[in-house]
Specification:
915 residues; alpha+beta; 8-stranded antiparallel sheet; 46 strands; globular; CBM96; 14-stranded mixed sheet
């Protein structure tokens, strides 16, 4: 048992003895259960309030007199008069439509659908135009329409199939030009006919009526536009023509989801927006049929509380206070029977109860003086928050971010509600847990146990806020060293742009503010440097890094936005994908091989493909089956050099074969990926090597070489060149890219399939370019005598301008093309030589490098001014031919060894400077 769980158990036992008298009865918490019951000079039911606290004596007097109505009034009086106590922040401060729509019990999950405005059609035919600039510029290329009110009126909105009055999107660009588009897809879905397709109809129908989130008469419409090649939009206007028998209000939402009008139906649509408008019961706080399953968890978190409470604070308009108070008490009434002990305080469990408590505490600080807050409502809300604290104190969850959130909110409750008798136990429990949990949530190397950078970023973000909160309130936090180590791990994962690579269940988030604030909190100048994009702090002393326990390696050329970054993983854990040995790559300001994201946690086929298949990642899928995460594997080595990195990794996560992957990363701008497959039997296996691109990459594949090149309209591009085009089946296939949660786009990926029995290989050259992709790149396999490629592989690059060699087996002197080499890896071109675990390189019988003994790693770079740069670990300056390395450098004028100018001796075309 870990120290944190032991401490938690002990504190829970201690807390049980802090409340005098027997506990309240199970079920809905009565007045006596909360205030206590006094009889015959003693507490027959212990109160949950600490009447020794200043200001609570009038409450205690009312309770002892048996007047619970008066006790409720006196308790409200106390909180209205109480000085402000730090209440923490809302989980959300803005939420599209929250102020306008939540009072009507209309709610949207996530940001994939964002409310824009309400349009009115009818009576008769009308054409309406809406400004949708913010939606288009935020990456939402689609829209959906939904009835604002529950009524029997049906709006008929012209579709793109209509002869006239089609939907149009008018775009005004930065150069003043105007483009007018019609939808590439539009349709509607109908609950009463869940499997019907309406993509070719002249009209899109919109309607909603009856109680509950929808009925058989609910119809929603969807439109999507193709914005390929469109940039710098300054204004966007959507024009729709529709009709209705009487005035019909229709909500317009921006939508970030791709769809096909030929297949979209009610049954195939994961819905994120539902309406209980006009339903006397309001939200039922449950999961509507067909909704994303996160709906059940997110709605009870009260994300809308922030916007409503802050609007009330800003305007003083009691409508907003009444709305939020009514929603809180409605939730209590609906959910109070969820759990016998904690009721609405725990619904529907762990993280969700914590998030709700976060939002309720922050809201209560604003609402406590509202005239709309009645004594009865106030008591009900306080009861629920008290029960939430008791639940969070004892509930245990193995997921780090959930437990962290629970204890942070427990700590906030302890500080904000000193009137609660359990507050001191909550404070001790939460503070001890938060200091100890970092040991449980991280590996020995400092990596995070959940395989996702978005969750890690959120985890660290919460620690930044929590530790600062603890310091302000005199609460000790003792795990700063471990927190710093975890912050460095996130820093290493980050792209040079400061965004996350979006591995696992994640989207690419800007990590910089979290890194900066963590650096300031811990006085860490390297975190500050990365968090401010180099404007402050100190540049990290390292670039590339290996996390052997977390099973991640990062090759990085530097810390500016223009540098390169390659991540290779064999990581596992909560929120991981079946993506072992997957690569994400970034260069010249752009992710060139991104992770394709998550989209949603629902069983949507696109989300299932993204999250559940190996095919959706930049690795090799074996026998059409996703990897498992129970077999052996890991990162075997990272050799880091100022000029290059060499990463080796392996995984047995596919039943058919062991996959080994080696990546040579040249910081000058080149990656070579060598894959070896070792099957477990003599059968023929199918190996599919995939390379994925962003939706706007516009990739193409050249026949013959089968090289794939991206064609982004601006900025960096990538060329992918396979070494054995004739041995693979090559295709550009249709996949998906989810750049953000609840957003998904069609995206192409390059697939190279090989069917083979016995050991086999893939060798692939990846060439990033600052501008247009270099389509002249060539790769040709060089025979290595009679040695097969699964033992030693050699490639001629760009017609002999460069050479690459890797030995998969015991090193030996081997010849390939004009070269002879005795080590494990070689790369050479006109300006550089890279060697790993070797001592001799010859080209056409002429010595290029000759060392008295094998060198672990060596890079030699020849500058045009005669400077020779030598980089390698364990090297020292020496000009003694008996000890030093001979290097062919006939034009050498100066030698720099590991950054320091050193003397050298010349012997013909060879120089001696390092040993």
């Amino acid at each position: 048992m870990s120290r944190s769980w032991w401490r938690l158990a002990v504190l829970v036992l201690v807390a049980a003895f802090l409340v005098p008298g027997p506990p309240a009865a199970a079920g809905a918490l009565s007045g006596a259960g909360f205030f206590g019951r006094w009889s015959a000079g003693g507490w027959t039911v212990g109160p949950r309030l600490d009447y020794a606290r200043e200001g609570l004596k009038p409450v205690e007097s009312a309770v002892k007199a048996g007047d619970y109505a008066l006790a409720e009034q006196r308790l409200l009086d106390h909180y209205r008069a109480r000085p402000a106590i730090e209440a923490g922040a809302f989980s959300q401060t803005t939420w599209p439509g929250a102020v306008e729509l939540t009072p009507s019990h209309i709610w949207t999950l996530g940001s994939g659908e964002a409310y824009i405005t309400t349009l009115t059609f009818g009576p008769g035919e009308k054409t309406v135009t809406a400004d949708v600039t913010s939606s288009i510029t935020s990456g939402k290329a689609g829209f959906f329409l939904m009835s604002r009110y529950k009524d029997a009126v049906i709006a008929l909105v012209n579709s793109r199939s209509k002869g006239s009055g089609k939907p149009t999107l008018r775009l005004t660009l930065a150069d003043g030009s105007v483009r007018t588009l019609i939808p590439t897809h539009d349709t509607y879905i109908w609950a009463a006919h869940p499997d019907n397709v309406y993509g070719t109809k002249y009209f899109m129908q919109v309607s909603d009526q009856g109680a509950g989130p929808f009925t058989g008469e609910t119809r929603k419409a969807y439109l999507r536009f193709d914005l390929g090649g469109v940039t710098d939009v300054k204004k966007a206007e959507l024009t729709l023509t529709g009709q209705a028998d009487t005035a019909k209000d229709i909500m317009l939402y921006g939508n970030a989801e791709t769809f096909d009008e030929a297949t979209r139906t009610w049954s195939t649509t994961v819905q994120n927006t539902f309406s209980w408008e006009g339903d006397p019961g309001g939200f039922d706080w449950k999961l509507p049929a067909g909704a994303d399953k996160e709906y059940l968890y997110q709605l009870p978190r009260f994300s809308f509380a922030g916007p409503l409470a802050l609007e009330y604070q800003k305007t003083g308009d009691e409508r907003h206070a009444r709305t939020l108070i009514d929603l809180m008490t409605d939730f209590i009434e609906d959910a109070d029977t969820y759990d016998d002990d904690q009721g609405a305080g725990s619904y529907p469990g762990n993280l969700h109860a914590a998030r709700r408590l976060q939002n309720w505490i922050a809201a209560y600080e604003i609402l406590r003086r509202s005239p709309s807050l009645t004594p009865e409502a106030n008591t009900a809300i306080l009861k629920t928050m008290n029960r939430a604290g008791l639940y969070l104190q004892v509930n245990v969850n193995g997921t780090p971010n959930k437990m962290q959130s629970q204890k942070i909110m427990l700590l906030h409750a302890a500080v904000y509600f000193p009137e609660f008798r359990a507050a001191p136990a909550w404070r001790a429990d939460a503070a001890g847990f938060l200091s100890a949990q970092l040991d449980d949530s991280t590996y020995a190397d400092g990596g995070y146990r959940e395989s996702t950078d978005a969750y890690l970023r959120g985890y660290l973000r919460q620690y930044v806020d929590a530790v600062a909160f603890m310091r302000r309130n005199g609460i000790p936090f003792t795990a700063t060293a471990k927190l710093r180590q975890l912050g460095r791990f996130l820093m290493d994962q980050s792209y040079p742009s400061g965004y996350g690579p979006a591995y696992g269940d994640s989207d690419s988030l800007d990590l910089r503010s979290t890194l900066r604030e963590l650096g300031e909190l811990l006085d860490d100048p390297e975190l500050v440097h990365v968090g401010t994009s180099g404007r402050s702090g100190e540049k990290p002393a390292h670039t590339s890094v290996l996390y052997p326990d977390t099973r991640v390696a990062i090759s990085r050329s530097g810390w500016t936005a223009d540098d390169s970054h390659l991540r290779l993983n064999a990581d596992r854990g909560n929120h991981s994908h079946p993506d072992e040995l997957a690569i994400t790559a970034y260069a010249y300001g752009r992710p060139l091989l991104p992770d394709m994201g998550t989209f949603t946690y629902s069983e949507d086929p696109r989300a299932e493909w993204l999250r559940r298949t190996t095919e959706a990642h930049n690795t090799i899928e074996i026998d059409d089956r996703p990897q498992t995460s129970t077999a052996d594997g890991g990162i075997s080595h990272l050799i880091a050099n100022p000029v290059f990195d060499l990463i080796g990794a392996n995984t047995a996560s596919s039943a058919g074969a062991v996959h080994e992957r080696s990546v040579l990363s040249l910081h000058s701008g080149l990656w070579v990926v060598s894959d070896r497959l070792k099957p477990v039997d003599a059968a023929t296996h199918r190996y599919e090597q995939n390379w994925h691109f962003a939706a706007d990459a516009d990739p193409s594949m050249r026949s013959g070489t089968e090289a794939t090149a991206t064609a982004f309209a601006t900025g960096a591009n990538l060329t992918i060149v396979p070494a054995d085009p004739a041995q693979v089946s090559s295709h550009l296939l249709d996949g998906y890219h989810a750049p953000r949660f609840y957003s998904v786009e069609n995206a192409k990926y390059a697939s190279y399939v090989k069917r083979a029995a016995g050991r086999t290989t893939f060798d692939t050259l990846l060439v990033p370019s600052r501008g247009a992709a270099d389509t002249s790149v060539t790769v040709e396999r060089l025979p290595v005598g009679a040695t097969p490629s699964h033992k030693a592989t050699a490639l001629s690059l760009n017609g002999g301008a460069g050479v690459y060699y890797k030995s998969w087996t015991t090193k030996a002197s081997r010849t390939f093309g004009p070269y002879t080499f005795d080590g494990k890896l070689l790369y050479a071109d006109a300006g550089s030589i890279v060697m790993v675990d070797g001592s001799s390189i010859e080209r056409a019988g002429t010595t290029l490098v000759k060392a008295p003994a094998a060198v672990k790693e060596l890079a030699v770079t020849f500058d045009g001014d005669g400077t020779v740069r030598i980089d390698g670990s364990g090297l020292t300056a020496s000009t003694d031919p008996a000890e030093a390395i001979a290097i062919a450098a006939p034009e050498a004028a100066k030698v720099i060894l590991n950054g320091v100018v050193v003397p050298f001796e010349r012997a013909g075309t060879l120089i001696y400077a390092a040993a």
